[in-house]
Amino acid sequence: MTSSFTDPVAPFPGWTRRMYRLSRPVTDEDIQAFLADQELYIRETPSGTRAIIHKFGLVEINLIVGEREAEVWFAPEQGAYPSEYVDALFSTRF
Questions:
Q1: How would you class 60 by CB atoms within 10 Å of its CB: exposed for 0-12, middle for 13-18, buried for 19 or more?
Q2: How far apart are CA 29 and CA 18, in angstroms?
Q3: Which of 42, 90, 44 lies closest to 70 in space, CA to CA?
Q4: Could you tell me which residues are beta bridge partners of residue 44?
Q5: Which of 4, 35, 49, 52 is the most exposed place for a label (fewest CB within 10 A)?
Q6: Contact status, residue 63 vs residue 22, Cβ threshold 8 Å
Q7: Which among 21, 26, 57 is positioned nearest to 39, based on CA atoms?
Q8: DSSP string spanning 21-84?
Q9: Choice among 13-27, 44-58, 59-73 with the minimum mean pLDDT
Q10: Selected residue with higher pLDDT from 47 and 40
Q11: Which of 35, 24, 63, 34 is nearest to 47 (CA)?
Q12: Exposure of 8 by Cβ count < 10 A (0-12 exposed, 13-18 middle, 19+ buried)?
């Protein structure tokens, strides 16, 4: 299976990319739950509309409704905290 997240571009120089395989497809409700009071950007791509959520300057979460994977970019200078945060965030929905 090929990824819907092709041609990766880091949101900031030096950020690290990780792909998450999800237990079910992403829904609009998942995006709203992850968003809270953070910034949401929408980008049209050949694979679909990509929702880009910035969380506290620590991570950027890229989601496509209907896909079973997520692309996440981490600020490496923050250590393990951003990765643990995303793991906990995803475990609440998937």
A1: buried
A2: 22
A3: 90
A4: 49
A5: 49
A6: no
A7: 57
A8: E-SS---HHHHHHHHTTSEEEEEEETTEEEEEEEETTTEEEEEETT-SEEEEEE-GGGTTHHHH
A9: 44-58
A10: 40
A11: 63
A12: exposed
Quick check: 40 pLDDT over 80?
A: yes
Residue closest to 5 by CA, chosen among 21, 25, 19: 19
Tokens of 46: 């050949």
Q: How many CA atoms lie within 13 A of 69 on its CB side?
A: 13
Q: What residues are paired with 20 via a beta bridge?
A: 70
